[in-house]
Amino acid sequence: MTIPRPYDAVLCDFDGVIRFYDQSELTELERAVGLAEGTTAKVVFAPEVDMPALLGQITVEQWMEVAEAALAVQVPREQARALVTAFVKAPTRVDEDVLGLLRRAQEHVPVVLVTNATLSLEDDLAWLGLTHFADEVVSSALVGVAKPDPRIYEIAAEHAGVPLERCLFVDDREENVEAARALGMTAVLFTGLPDLETALAPLLG
């Protein structure tokens, strides 16, 4: 007897699940100019600063300029520029264990990246050697809508070719996970590899 699959597609976030940033240089810079650790990220990720970039309305360079101006309220402009540059240019790594699990999942169902990203995502994926990794990529900057807006989940499910309720959604932000659950998806808050292993176990056996 064939056991039915628990879901027919995996919709997965990118940053915080697959890609991770090393912000140690930024932390040192913040200390050097007398800012609390995480101050730059708070400014850069403030909705009025980063949302236009995540919706594809401005380039990464323009986003950096806006963030620099916002941060310059707290430190001299030159220091603000250095902090924002360190934030955006921070070294990244890909979690190969997560990729390995997702590739195993791809043997059974489509895997779709669903990410709040800037217009640089395509270049970033190419640089990381991940251009052809996912079956589909849904970037907020290209579709003009960002998580947790329900529409981006609907677009991702359409790309996967399955109903929303037949999707597994994986993300590292609680508000995005809750939005997915509200649409009937199976949704998992990613805090580390065991969360993904548990979520994919019914599919991988």
Question: Can you tell me about this structure?
Answer:
By secondary structure, the chain is α/β, with parallel strands linked by helices. It folds into 2 domains: 9-20 and 93-204, Rossmann fold; 23-88, no CATH class. The protein contains 11 helices and 7 strands. The protein has helices at residues 24-32, 39-44, 47-54, 60-71, 77-88, 96-106, 121-127, 140-143, 150-160, 174-182, 193-204, and strands spanning 9-12, 19-21, 92-94, 111-115, 136-139, 167-171, 186-189. A 5-stranded parallel β-sheet has the order 5-4-1-6-7, sandwiched between helices. It has a two-stranded antiparallel ribbon with strand order 2-3. Strand 4, helix 7 (121-127) and strand 5 (136-139) form a beta-alpha-beta unit. The longest helix has 12 residues, at 60-71. The chain is elongated. The model has no long low-confidence stretch (mean pLDDT 96).
Helicity range: 40-55%
- Number of helical elements: 11
* Assigned CATH class of the largest domain: Alpha Beta
Number of β-strand runs = 7
Backbone structural class: alpha/beta
Radius of gyration, taken over Cα atoms and rounded to an integer in Å: 18 Å
Distance between the termini: 15 Å
What is the name of the CATH topology of the largest domain? Answer: Rossmann fold
Global geometry: elongated
**How would a textbook summarize the main sheet?**
5 strands, parallel
The CATH H-level superfamily of the largest domain is HAD superfamily/HAD-like
